[in-house]
């Protein structure tokens, strides 16, 4: 049975088109449609219900050691209030999940994981923890709202008690805050390539928090946004999505996430396998359609001039029509030598060869 | 299902309207949009492009899938409905107003059906 977030009724009332995603019923778009929702986030602001994400709390004196052992990133120098992205690998170097770790206090970490992987992650962490730590799956207690776009800070500043409640640095968070009596965590993070915030509140406060933010953002043009825009936005920003750019067998290095794999720290799960695998022969690359055609995931890629009877050289992992560039863009797994920008390739789109060109990632980077 | 009498239909579920000035207007039928469900993107040809009867001329993407649109005529693209790029959902709400493109210099046309014949085809496909 698919789960409903505390905002399910709100989405239905707003005319959201409900789909199943990662075991959850969520709106893929509202009547405004994905292109308008996408552009609202690029130019003004959008509000997303991302309550499906999982929250796992890790506490105890050995927390840091456990984190550094289970994750590929290094958390040693992390300060309270910081957030850090990391892949989590299995012994073979494949990716169990990618997640964000917040340092809430000394030996107190708040870990946000992908909805579809939450149970797998929690089991994995419980099976690989050691020493004096406690792991709690707190997912049901929390709702999460993402307020994303260049006007996000203006809107948020209207509802928080004071300026100090708004985290200033990217990838930082303010814990134990209150918005109109609702306890929350305010984090300067997101999955859209824009400035913005993720607000974790009690599930029971989700509807009131949503309504409050929507009302506060009325003049700024804030609109609700669904999973469709979340996907096109993250794709334009070339942010990987678990199950697409990486999975249990693809290593973070192959997914272009090498900077989050700290080979110089002491042993961690997957380190030996990643070292053994060496420099990946495949790379995550960006593709742009030349001419016409919408590319989707899992479409085969061929050398220029090849026919469908030839061997494909790679496969797309995500792809769609991107409203900001008005172009069909995709990410793909390609052999290193074919992943150079400017390389011309072809993608088999429903039996038709569509010419594409390798382009540099990210497709979109916001102006600072 | 709505099938206006004044239009012609292709077996791949496009409609064709004779504009009377040498141009034809092309769109997706009510049946096509309901089968695709909510459209999220359209990828249209460009003005001046040549299109060929029976060949792919556009793509549409819905929350369910991406699919090809076939040109019912051979000719030149005279005009493109740019509005749909920002509001593809118009095809769902009003498929016979939400034209995709207009073609001119039409030299060839696929075998097209009238409304009654098209309704029959759809009835068969639904079985």
The neighbouring-strand order within the major sheet of chain A is 11-12-13-10-4-14
Give the percentage of residues in beta strands of chain B. Answer: 35-45%
Structural class of chain B comes to alpha+beta
- Global Rg of chain A: 21 Å
SSE order of chain A, one letter for each helix or strand: EHEEHEEHEEEHEEHEEEHEHHEEEEEE
Largest interface: A-B, 22 and 18 residues
- Please mark out the parts of chain B with pLDDT under 50 across 5 or more consecutive residues, or reply none: none
Percentage of residues in strands of chain A: 25-35%
- Give the second-level CATH assignment, the architecture of the domain at 3-50 and 140-236 in chain A: 2-Layer Sandwich
Anisotropy-based shape of chain B: globular
CATH superfamily caption of the domain at 3-50 and 140-236 in chain A: Probable tRNA modification gtpase trme, domain 1
Q: Average pLDDT of chain A, to the nearest integer?
A: 96
The CATH class of the domain at 3-50 and 140-236 in chain A turns out to be Alpha Beta
Task: Report the sheet with the most strands of chain B, covering strand number, pairing sense and barrel closure.
Answer: 6 strands, antiparallel
Number of strands of chain B: 9
How would you sum up the major sheet of chain A? 6 strands, mixed
Number of helices of chain A: 8
Low-confidence stretches of chain A: none
Side-by-side strand order of the widest sheet of chain B? 1-2-3-9-8-5
Number of strands of chain A: 20
Q: What structural class do the secondary elements of chain A suggest?
A: alpha+beta
